Amino acid sequence: MLSYLSIRNLAIIDRLELELYPGLTAVTGETGAGKSMLLSALTMLLGGAVSRDSVRTGEDSLSLEGIWDNGSGTLPFSSLLDGEPVPGEVIVRRNVSLTEGSRRDRLLVADRLASRTALQELAGDLVNISSQHEYIGLMKKAEHLRILDRYAGHASLLERMDGLAARHESLRRELADLVEQAERREARMSELSARVDELSAAEVKAGEEEELLGRISRLAHAADIANALGQAVDLLYEGERDVVSTLTLVERVLAGVTRFEPAVSPGIDRLASARVEIEDIVSQLRRQAGGSEVDPAQLDHLQERLALVQKLKRRYGVERADELPLLLDEARAELSRLEDVDVHVERLRSEAETARKAMNDCAARLHEARARVARKLEKALQETLGLLEMKKARFSVPVVFDETRVGRQGGDDVEFLFSANTGEEPRALRKVASGGELSRVLLALKAVLAEAYPVPTYVFDEIDSGIGGKTALAVGRLLSRLARSHQVICITHTAQLAAFADHHYVVTKEERGGKTHARLARLARPEERVREVARMLSGLDDSPTALSHAAELIEAARGDA
Fold first, then answer.
1. I need a surface site. Which of 26, 72, 338, 427 has the fewest CB within 10 A?
2. Which domain range does residue 252 map to?
3. CA-angle at 147, arms to 144 and 148, nearest 5°
């Protein structure tokens, strides 16, 4: 239950606090005083959109706060709090700051940040709001199926229907793609076969392009390489003053003085080691020189191979030759799949048909359930409309099944039919109901659904639109009955309805400091209520006749509730 609502800087409201209680609460006041701002504030608090025009002129922020009495933790706030139950009071706060060029919107639930989207998803389980927008929604045929399903409460059957239909849709799409693929198969298989043949014949290996480039470079410079190797061998071993001969001579010179200077011996050993190492290098250079002869035929062969590899790269749009073997594997795999496409098509056709039968079976069960519940809803609405001074009204909920249109919501076509007068066949509600009749039908639906769809708080914004007199009393009586099991908040202009209130608030506005201010006051004393109801009856709050009539109306409502 909503126990407290605080509003700061919303339209003409600068500061307003509202204590709320169980039972029926009426909010009244002159037109334009700001009554509907309470409804707007509650909608925004629960994640609704906030525009710059919503913020009070001259201010740059809007603050809203609500407190829900969560008792033992049955309200769905835990879904916003990592599954933790929240017994007792739950505070929801929203602050929207709109400064020059920036916007900050912060929403807190039990002092934890929450997203607007997440709060909007559970708002319908906290507060059920009936406004002019919902009257318009009731005129939409698509809403009627949703209302029937809500009354039926067969969520598990609807979830199964949705899952089966989604599976069938997925298989149909996959089958259509595969059939289209099969139609293009011949051309694609021809293309893939040519690719496999070409790439298989080429036998390109990983790293081959880099190896070819290296070998070609060496062959192209074979003469230079041979010349360099020859010069190196000559300088190190075969020349007139080659390095090896020089090192040998140095060893001999130093050996002649070792008996006078023993410290020279290690140097001689190192020179000998260097000479051996150089002789080994010379042997390696001679072998390399022997294999560096120019071979024009081999060079031509390597260049042709490189040209083929680079041609394949360009043809198949790859940057590296190493990708060509992968491309070959992919082509072989796709070719294999295409060769088996007929088998896959038949398999998918079988699966899609099985899914269609399961979906249609579920849709048939859903239709039967809806048809049963529709009769129950018709009876309950008929009785409730009778309480609203519409005893001659007829309300029909036909459920028409069409197997060809089965989808995620089943295969049913549902539209509410209504007749207000004897002898008139029920016709589409959207075509025949007047404003007052539509208000009562909506209220009747709310009252009936309240038993099957428990929401702690109901808010009605001018549910009395288009009605008055005895009918208004009947509406007040029904709201009073609904308030025995739910918290009901009603924004109204009708005295007959306000007379049934357990709690009564009046919204007024005043001009102060060149600005308009909305004010809210609870009418705690009986005489205050009588005066407000008298104003609503006659426009005069001090007329003895109006005051007497108001007192009589409140007393009658008290005895009738």
1. 72
2. 207-321
3. 85
